[in-house]
């Protein structure tokens, strides 16, 4: 099940039009100074996020499978993704494609949808804290907050799409394997035939 399977059909232009205002020049202007001040906050969030996950039975079982280097890499990718959510100069299409890849990776390692929904609750809470930085007028803060909330919504929707595609891919592979079992007589032929169909 290759990650490229997550890159299938993109939503319609109308879908992306609903998010366009959250990637506008106005939001870019608000994000640039805001983004420069969140490096430490992002790292703090990532550490808090994984501490929270390690206290949950389902997620701690997944994290326990990782060696220290893999966990560091995962945390680094998490920080990169959060920076991407907060970045100026992106488009909803670019964001959707990236979130598809992240969702596929999450589904592949066994992160469940309830776990992901909980993660987004933490994301929203942390981003609300980011907006408490001084130097921004209330109206600007509200405008930026609405845009970031929309970006999180797009991110979540894209990852859910990847979960659906991942489940469909698993079902397709299982069906191919079942067909292979029906058509051959020994294990070697099952593996050869099954891999050929997959």
Rg, Å, rounded: 20 Å
> What class do helices, strands and sheet pairing give?
mainly alpha
Order of helices and strands: HHHHHHHHH
Shape: globular
Determine the strand fraction and express it as a percent band.
Answer: under 5%
Key traits:
198 residues, mainly alpha, 9 helices
Describe the structure.
With 198 residues, this protein is mostly helical. Helices cover 76% and strands 0% of the residues. The protein has helices spanning 13-17, 25-36, 39-54, 57-63, 68-85, 92-109, 113-130, 138-183, 187-197. Helix 6 (92-109) packs across helix 8 (138-183). The chain is globular, with a radius of gyration of 20 Å.
Layout of helices and strands:
Layout: H1 13-17, H2 25-36, H3 39-54, H4 57-63, H5 68-85, H6 92-109, H7 113-130, H8 138-183, H9 187-197
In short:
This protein has 198 residues and is mainly alpha-helical. The protein is built from nine helices and no strands.
């Amino acid at each position: 099940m290759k990650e490229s399977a997550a890159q299938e059909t993109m939503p319609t232009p109308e879908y992306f039009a609903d998010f366009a205002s959250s990637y506008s020049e106005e939001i870019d202007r608000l994000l640039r100074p805001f983004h420069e001040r969140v490096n430490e906050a992002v790292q703090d969030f990532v550490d808090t996020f994984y501490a929270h996950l390690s206290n949950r039975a389902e997620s701690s079982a997944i994290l326990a499978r990782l060696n220290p280097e893999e966990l560091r890499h995962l945390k680094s990718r998490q920080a990169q993704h959060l920076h991407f959510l907060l970045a100026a100069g992106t488009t909803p299409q670019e964001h959707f494609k990236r979130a598809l890849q992240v969702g596929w990776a999450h589904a592949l390692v066994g992160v469940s949808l309830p776990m992901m929904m909980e993660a987004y609750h933490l994301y929203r809470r942390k981003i609300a804290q980011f907006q408490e930085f001084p130097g921004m007028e209330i109206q600007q803060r509200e405008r930026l907050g609405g845009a970031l909330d929309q970006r999180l919504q797009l991110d979540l929707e894209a990852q859910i799409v990847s979960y659906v595609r991942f489940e469909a891919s698993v079902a397709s592979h299982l069906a191919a394997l079942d067909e292979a079992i029906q058509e051959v007589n020994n294990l070697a032929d099952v593996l050869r035939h099954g891999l050929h169909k997959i």
